[in-house]
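TA notes. Do not distribute before section.
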Amino acid sequence: MKTEEYNAGDLDPTFGKKGSTAFADVDYFFALTTDEHDNVYAAGRTLDNKYYVARLTPDGLLDKRFAGVGYISSTFGGASKSQALTINIDPKGRILVTGDQYGTGTGVCLARFMPDGKPDKTFGKDGEVIVPPERAAERYPNECTQTSNANSQSGTCTVLSDGKILLILSLYKGENPYLFKLEENGAVDKTFNGKGYVQLAYEGKAIYQTCLRVIKGERLIVGAALRPDDSRISQGFLIAYDSKGLPDRSFGKGGYCVLEKPAKEQGGLEVWDLHPLPDQKFWVVGRTGPSPWMGDPVPEHGVLTRLDTHGSQDIEFNNGDPVLTDFQGEWMSGAIQADGKVIVVGTRWGEAGVLARYHPDGTLDIGFGNNGFRYFPSVGTGRLVILQKDGRIIAGGRMAQDNGSPSSVILRYVQ
């Protein structure tokens, strides 16, 4: 049966097993991507705390041409624990994975694999790199780590068209993060800001980075949450740099942009995903936090907004106001269709993972799913979304299976 016989937002039964592929041994998937052949790559952490990288055929089956079994499960540097947080396919078809040793404080770990799943021995030492590198003549930032509760967005690392690598390094004990640039072989590119990295800082406030995007190879945008006081209410925050690692003064105020909406009284904003548009505007996907009188910081609503080229909220989108869900939950990531519509994925708290589709003006596309929304088939959470070349929607998250136990899952929906 062809997917064309189904409506937009319907589960695609030609993918995996009746529309989904389950991974019983995987605790979480933190990243999804596709290659030029529309194979689907997923990266995350196993139940026994190893990093996990799988390749699926375009229709959701483990591709046994990759590492002989369709997946790689290992640890970085021989550590006892590891997790993979991002995955990218570079211009030569190699698979770059970043993650950490799951709370051990060593830094960001990178591993690169050839298309067949074998380690790329031209990268670092036997295919692996740890950032920051061993300290020699030059002093590198101290106490660098991604902790066990590190961010889980695939956008915190990207590979440029020349094979060089940009990544964000989270820090220990609340210090602000660093943006690093590496050569194709994994060495630090010291032409970037004169030393290979720049520290993200703004008026002494705590910055919690979540995503990194490159616009036309010239502007680097970091999305984050800014916590300005002890209320635990965050504001959406973006920082722009040029390709040399210097602040992009044309963006916001001197390269910095604090998003005033949603306001603190609405719970503020945590930015979780950014997507640039051809005109250099970009979508912001995220969630609010608690209203000031609610105490414990349980995220309340999913947020979608659009910014203009200078970082201001775009008045052509919902008159400049963010669109919030009318249910308690969050949006975690998004994808942009060829027609300009935006797909977002997240969770309705206490229920299931959920997808939604919006028109460019911020109105729900009621022709998608059930009046604009499509829930995962059973209880769980939604985390990731990407598009295949024909526009079909690949979503990742967790949900209960037939025996009632939850597992990580990848699903496909009709565009």
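Switch to the second chain here.
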Amino acid sequence: MSQLRQYRLVDREGAPHPVLDDLYESLDAAWSEAMAWWHQQFGTTTGPMEIGVEVSTQSGDWRTLRYPGS
């Protein structure tokens, strides 16, 4: 039986993001939320976003899909 994946946003230290601490249905949904929040906070600066994305694994752990700043 396949498990539904969940996504979460993390801060530059790899901990759950202090503001965007929620679970998302897809990578796109998580990243869209991160981009919208980042642009609201910091404008459209060209520097790297210090937000990463993790996905849940079947064993209950989290795996990094996008590292903060990349």
